[in-house]
Amino acid sequence: MAKLSPARLGFMLCAFLLPGLIGTFASFSIPAPLVDEIRQEQALQAVLDAPNAQAQAAAIAALSGNEAQTAMATQAGMTQDVPDTALVDPDTAAIVQNGTGPVAERVAAAARNMRVEVLAQARSEAYRIRLMVITFTILGAIFAVFLMGPDSDGANKK
Question: What stretches of the chain show up as alpha helix (H) in DSSP?
């Protein structure tokens, strides 16, 4: 049976632990764009499903979040401390809130805009995940080479 050396232990860590870490970190990023799209779709659908004009106006106003809270926080210099209460991206909300024409057409245009942004976000996340996998792979290889480095038992000495 082979002796368990620090180099072999390090190699086993590189072989199993690093791919596990890569997968764990990547799994947190993968669903983000999809979850964002679902949340924004629900907010836009709430505008269309409003039972009356007042409810529809409230749903449209809710798309951009609590503007009064954000304005007060900005004035006080606390913008990082205020949670983002916007239900959709600012430009998607602007299409519905500031657009002209029937509400259904504005919501449809906002949904198209939102899908384009979500697609860009998904591509960005995919790039970051690939970059993370490449970085962890290179670091794991360097770590393995370092641990499996020169033979310290003197067998290769002449």
Answer: 6-12, 18-29, 32-48, 53-62, 67-75, 90-98, 103-147
